[in-house]
Write a structure and sequence with these properties.
Helices cover about 35% and strands about 15% of the residues. The protein has helices spanning about 5-10, 75-80, 90-100, 105-125, and strands at about 15-20, 25-30, 50-55, 60-65, 80-85. α3 runs antiparallel to α4 (about 105-125).
């Protein structure tokens, strides 16, 4: 089934769609939606290839989640998770190389890099400021 036809079916009746009062845009709780906006461009269910970056369960590093192109008929096997627990520079480089090598969308690359950067920054330990006496 094509992604356009799939979007026409899912568009108004998705279980991931979140409507808020006095806000024109619909939000999404789709686990593969990078921007959390309900649109066909960012909907991970509809796209053949989708990526997502989540915090690692051990609160050290990130988990890179991606959807395989040829596993649409097997949704349970479509998602693959790769833990990235080295340093921040290596994590960013691995995400860039993955998107380039397997030809994922460039706009998703920038969203994934920004999200990974924010997650890694939030996991850094806080250094207490020294008091000047």
């Amino acid at each position: 089934m094509s992604s356009h036809l799939y979007w026409l079916i899912v568009r108004k009746s998705s279980s991931h769609m979140v409507k808020k009062r006095n806000i024109r845009k619909y939000f999404s709780t789709d686990p593969l939606n990078m921007k959390k906006i309900h649109s066909p461009r960012y909907c991970g269910l509809v796209q053949k290839k989708a990526i997502m970056v989540d915090p690692h369960p051990s609160s050290n590093g990130v988990t890179f989640i991606y959807k395989k192109k040829y596993s649409q008929h097997r949704p349970a096997r479509a998602l693959l998770r790769t833990p990235m627990r080295k340093n921040a520079r290596r994590t960013m480089t691995n995400i860039k190389k993955f998107v380039r090598r397997f030809q994922y969308r460039k706009d998703l690359k920038m969203l994934a890099l920004r999200r990974a950067s924010a997650i890694l920054k939030s996991q850094r330990p806080l250094v207490p400021k020294k008091k000047v006496s």
